């Protein structure tokens, strides 16, 4: 059986309410969860029909997501710890995470994500994941619909030092570097991947 629901403890929360302006400052929030801490500050504005917010979050010490990550993701990331910073803003109908500056193990994520409640879509905007240790990078754009359980994501990935990745995946050393551009589409249950792949350093035997 997998892990149960993660526990979280609210250690500190300081708010400043301004009734005349109909907004509230989140001066400081401190939540302990998953072996780490989430620190936050920001503002809620409830003067209009739809409440809007801005929250700056910092994850330090890192949260341990290891028990909830697939084994392959843990092996590629090196460890399941999540740290860094992210700004959340918008409303319940339209939430942005921008900018993202997060570290999952050896992988660093930057760019932005937009959640649109009306359509159920998550839209990556300039989203990029880099793994400096192996010279790997991934850029993605498009949409993921969590209501319809469909996706249409364009991507470009490159790995300058392919050997360590192949070793972690227990795959043969078929090349020293590779890149791919393509599209992931279809449903969550039956995704389709089309890609153009380029590989360097492929071993071969024969005569010149």
Characterization of the model:
There is one protein chain. By secondary structure, this protein is mainly β. The protein is 6% helix and 62% strand. It is built from two helices and twelve strands, in the order ββββαββββββαββ. The protein has helices spanning 71-77, 163-168; strands spanning 8-18, 23-33, 36-45, 52-64, 81-91, 94-104, 107-116, 121-131, 136-145, 150-159, 177-187, 191-200. Strands 1-2-3-4-5-6-7-8-9-10-11-12 form a twelve-stranded antiparallel sheet, with no helix packed on it. A hairpin with a 3-residue loop joins strand 11 and strand 12. The chain is globular.
Helices, strands, pairings?
Blueprint (H helix, E strand, L loop, with lengths): L7 E11 L4 E11 L2 E10 L6 E13 L6 H7 L3 E11 L2 E11 L2 E10 L4 E11 L4 E10 L4 E10 L3 H6 L8 E11 L3 E10 L8
Antiparallel strand pairs: 1-2, 2-3, 3-4, 4-5, 5-6, 6-7, 7-8, 8-9, 9-10, 10-11, 11-12
Q: Gap between N and C termini, in Å?
A: 56 Å
Low-confidence stretches: none
Computed structural class: mainly beta
- Residues in helix, %: under 10%
Total helices: the number is 2
**What summary fits the major beta sheet?**
12 strands, antiparallel
Strand order of the largest sheet: 1-2-3-4-5-6-7-8-9-10-11-12
Shape: globular
Q: Please state the CA-atom Rg, rounded to the nearest Å.
A: 21 Å
Total number of beta strands? 12
Mean pLDDT: 90
Reading the helices and strands in chain order gives EEEEHEEEEEEHEE
Q: Percent of residues in beta strands?
A: over 45%
């Amino acid at each position: 059986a997998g892990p149960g629901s993660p526990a979280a403890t609210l250690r500190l929360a300081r708010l400043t309410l301004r009734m005349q302006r109909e907004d509230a400052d989140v001066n400081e929030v401190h939540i302990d969860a998953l072996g780490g801490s989430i620190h936050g500050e920001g503002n809620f504005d409830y003067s209009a029909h739809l409440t809007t917010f801005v929250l700056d979050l910092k994850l330090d010490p890192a949260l341990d997501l290891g028990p909830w990550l697939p084994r392959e993701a843990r092996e590629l990331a090196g460890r399941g710890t999540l740290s860094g910073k992210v700004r959340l803003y918008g409303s319940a109908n339209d939430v942005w995470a921008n900018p993202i500056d997060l570290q999952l193990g050896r992988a660093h994520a930057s760019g932005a994500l937009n959640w649109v409640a009306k359509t159920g879509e998550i839209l990556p905007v300039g989203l990029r994941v880099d793994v400096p240790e192996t010279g790997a990078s991934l850029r993605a754009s498009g949409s993921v619909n969590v209501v319809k359980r469909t996706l249409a994501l364009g991507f470009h990935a490159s790995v300058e030092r392919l050997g360590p990745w192949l070793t972690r995946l227990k795959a043969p050393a078929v090349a020293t570097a590779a890149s791919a551009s393509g599209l992931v589409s279809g449903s969550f249950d039956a995704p389709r991947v089309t890609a153009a792949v380029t590989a360097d350093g492929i071993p071969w035997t024969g005569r010149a």
